[in-house]
Amino acid sequence: MIKILPVIMCGGSGTRVWPESRESLPKQFIPLVGERSTFQTTMAMLADPAFEKPIVISNSDYRFLISDQLRAIGAEADVVLEPSRRDSGPAVAVAAGLAARRAPETIVVVLAADHVVRDRAGLVALCKEAAEAASEGYIVTLGVKPDHPATGYGYLRPGAPLHEGSEVLKLDAFVEKPDRETAQRYIDAGYFWNSGNFIFRADVMQAEIAHFEPTIAEAAEAAIDGAARDLDFCVLNAEAFARAPKKSIDYAVMEKTEKAALIPADIGWSDVGTWRAVWELSERDEKGNSVRGHGVVMDAKNVHVRSEEALTTVVGVDDVIVVTTQDAVLVLNHEHGDRVKHLVDELKTQNRREAAAHKRIFRPWGYYQSIDEGQRYQVKRIVVKPGERLSLQKHFHRAEHWIVVRGTAEVGRDDEVHLVHENESIYLPIGCKHRLINPGKIDLELIEVQTGSYLGEDDIVRFQDVYNRG
Fold first, then answer.
1. Which of 143, 207, 214, 279 is most solvent-facing, going by the fewest CB within 10 Å?
2. pLDDT at 395
């Protein structure tokens, strides 16, 4: 049996399913469908003995989210961090380079962390079959049979089987996203969607990238050569990686190579690219309505409601999606799912914090969440995981009051150390050096009240930090 090295692409920002997915917590880390995130579901699928220990490629912003989600499902991976976002071409070049250093003929499967596959066993079987073709020098993509003329996918024109009786087909043409009329012609002609999942031999992909995009190839190799360890992560060299142009692997290689092949993949695939796709993947009642969280739908059909906290109700309105978060509400007609990304772009032009950040901000030690704020004050809820600690720090413009509501806090304040128990509090004046530690075995929860002339997150000086943050 050919062993396959899985590489999971895990760096996207997922703006098309805002407001649940934002840059601070993108869709691959959210349980959009089911109880696990799509990243966790993908990782769990790779427990099959055909796969080697996976490599996850992401960026520094998500490194601790990745660690937490791996730990939660008992999975392991080598995590490689990109110092800047350069699209999928450089990422695949790095994946091929890392695999080739193990052995040039290593078979690699590149999978997206934010896709859903209903038939996971089917995907594993396809990877094994595609690996045989990849070992012969082909770059195989999984082709999904279209069920509607989508304009957001690339299309694949299949050719003849590689060998008699083979499920793997030659790829006659790789075409980018068409308009609706062209997409329908492609479907009528038997084209497939490009799923964005590829299987290849490491040295073959390296050679094709070097041939078509030598700058990407050189930057990837230099970034690997200059990589450094940071805690449990491999961080690519920033200066070298920045030399790679931003280009997708589709444009960089797949549209040009003569080594492309496809394997038809009837596996219930979705890139979960719109809220309509989430609704389609969700359990629905006889009227087509789906509710996740606190929602009620009356006298309506084909409605998708999502709200983890506030009661959200829909009456007498069909074909809508309503998503309620702590700080934003989206009401969307099914047919306008592709407009959400444009909405987020508009919010960014208005400098709306909600465009990119949730009220709950995750940190390697836990998270904090804004409760209330006004002129010269801010109230936060802080949760620290057992055994974790915040950096030793100070602030120039604010004082803080910490009130413990659950667990026990070990608080360093200048030269003093205090144990603060439930229903107790401690005051941290402006300019004092302080550190918060959870010495217990349960989550530490406290309420922080900040007062001062400036309350921005950048009013911080770190003296020591176990997570190597600046």
1. 214
2. 97
